[in-house]
């Protein structure tokens, strides 16, 4: 009898513990999602928790492995952030440098207004602060209490053409690239945490330069990344239009997807400034941007150690002006005169070319002309193409091309890989244009995330229909609509 009572009490005790655990976890989830429906519970379910980077020995340029953490960091930084060697420049590149040294404009933009600064602050995300430790929340409080402080500071920077040195320092964070060999220096992705004060000034520059480019009709219509009125949807729709032209003309076509190697981290800053001169940039804006690019540095923190490195090329990944500056350079590739029957478009640093012709031989001839121009464009801006991220997909719909005998396309004697499908900005395009792989992937992704949400958060989301609706429209329905 006593054993039966004990078993009942033990079962009741376990039930109470389980109930308490569920209530505690539900309260914990409720606190997390109070301001953001896509916080930890969703991240766990969607597999969006980033694993901590563990640095190990990496292979140096001479084939040896590093022995210390300092050598590892130095090797990774040298691979990801190349130096700017002016001694190897071509005549065209030297002329561009001379143009910058002699550039002069009588045009000056007006001072930044308090309304511009307030708007720039309101668009800032709550990201980690830079080396100075000043967060966006602190900046908002200061600006609300006394807007004259930032107003005077930023306009003095504009007047003097000086971007403060302390705002040019970036705190380097390194992440592993999924599926990459960690012993290779290029298997890591760099992020620079910058001063929030500097990023606000970058925003103000972006507003003014974007207005200048828009007024002078310098924003290329085939660039779909980081542009108002452009998106992944418009890029995929434009790709379909280009393919549809070949289908209507009943001619063969192939898609060429090119990836620029280390685009944001390696491209030539002189190219950015040169494009600003071509847009007749106001002198005070030009001076401030030019100073922004001088004496930049990155700093890696490891316990009590700090390693400092010069940053001579590219724009920091994490900056507010990086996308705009990259588009300035990328638009020059979109303006290249390509053979008739060719279409080129870009989304940030992802370049896509659709080549159509009467037969396979004509496509190959056009390919030679296109790649010759693109390779020359890359060399001019100190960029190169990543062979591992460059693919060709022949359109086999209609039987005009086939995967067994596709057009031969090569870069620097390396034959480009032929694939039967390409994932472009969330949409999987297959050579037969059936989109079967795309729909299957979406179905699997939707099933997986809904199951994991119910598993991770138990009944938490089902009891809160409004919260679950946000998750549905923001993650599930959005992915199904891609």
TrEMBL record:
It comes from the Eukaryota. CDD domains: RT_nLTR_like. GO terms for biological process: DNA biosynthetic process. SUPFAM superfamilies: DNA/RNA polymerases. Pfam families: RVT_1 (PF00078). InterPro entries: DNA/RNA_pol_sf, Rev_trsase/Diguanyl_cyclase, RT_dom. This is Reverse transcriptase domain-containing protein. It comes from Araneus ventricosus (Orbweaver spider).
């Amino acid at each position: 009898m006593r054993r039966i009572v004990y078993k009942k009490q033990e079962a009741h005790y376990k039930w109470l513990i389980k109930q308490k655990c569920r209530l505690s976890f539900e309260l914990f989830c409720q606190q997390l999602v109070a301001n953001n429906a896509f916080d930890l519970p969703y991240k766990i379910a969607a597999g969006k928790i980033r694993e901590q980077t563990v640095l190990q020995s990496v292979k140096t340029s001479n084939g040896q492995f590093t022995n210390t953490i300092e050598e590892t960091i130095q090797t990774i930084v040298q691979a990801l952030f190349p130096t700017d060697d002016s001694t190897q420049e071509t005549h065209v590149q030297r002329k561009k440098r001379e143009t910058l040294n002699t550039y002069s404009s009588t045009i000056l933009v007006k001072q930044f207004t308090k309304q511009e600064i307030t708007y720039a602050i309101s668009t800032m995300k709550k990201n980690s602060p830079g080396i100075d430790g000043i967060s966006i929340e602190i900046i908002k409080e200061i600006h609300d209490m006394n807007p004259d402080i930032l107003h005077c500071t930023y306009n003095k920077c504009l007047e003097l053409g000086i971007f403060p040195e302390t705002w040019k320092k970036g705190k380097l964070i390194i992440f592993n690239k999924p599926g990459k060999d960690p012993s290779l220096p290029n298997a890591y992705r760099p992020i620079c945490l910058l001063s929030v004060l500097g990023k606000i000034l970058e925003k103000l520059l972006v507003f003014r330069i974007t207005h200048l480019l828009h007024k002078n009709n310098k924003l290329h219509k085939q660039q779909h990344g980081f542009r108002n009125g452009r998106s992944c949807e418009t890029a995929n729709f434009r790709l379909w239009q280009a393919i549809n032209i070949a289908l209507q003309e009943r001619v063969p076509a192939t898609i060429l997807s090119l990836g620029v190697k280390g685009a944001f981290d390696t491209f030539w800053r002189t190219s950015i400034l040169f494009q600003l001169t071509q847009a007749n940039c106001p002198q005070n804006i030009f001076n401030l941007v030019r100073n922004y690019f001088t004496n930049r540095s990155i700093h890696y923190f490891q316990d009590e150690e700090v390693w400092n490195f010069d940053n001579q090329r590219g724009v920091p990944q994490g900056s507010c002006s990086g996308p705009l500056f990259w588009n300035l350079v990328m638009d020059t590739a979109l303006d290249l005169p390509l053979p008739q029957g060719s279409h080129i478009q870009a989304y940030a640093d992802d370049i896509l070319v659709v080549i159509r012709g009467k037969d396979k031989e004509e496509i190959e001839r056009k390919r030679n002309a296109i790649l010759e121009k693109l390779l020359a464009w890359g060399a001019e801006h100190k960029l190169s193409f990543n062979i591992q991220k460059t693919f060709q997909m022949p359109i086999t719909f209609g039987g005009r091309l086939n995967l067994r005998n596709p057009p031969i396309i090569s870069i620097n004697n390396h034959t480009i890989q032929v694939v039967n499908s390409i994932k472009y900005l969330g949409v999987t395009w297959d050579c037969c244009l059936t989109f079967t792989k795309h729909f299957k992937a979406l179905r699997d992704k939707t099933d997986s995330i809904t199951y994991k949400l119910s598993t991770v958060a138990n009944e938490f989301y089902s009891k809160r229909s409004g919260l679950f609706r946000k998750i549905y429209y923001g993650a599930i329905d959005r992915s199904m609509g891609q």
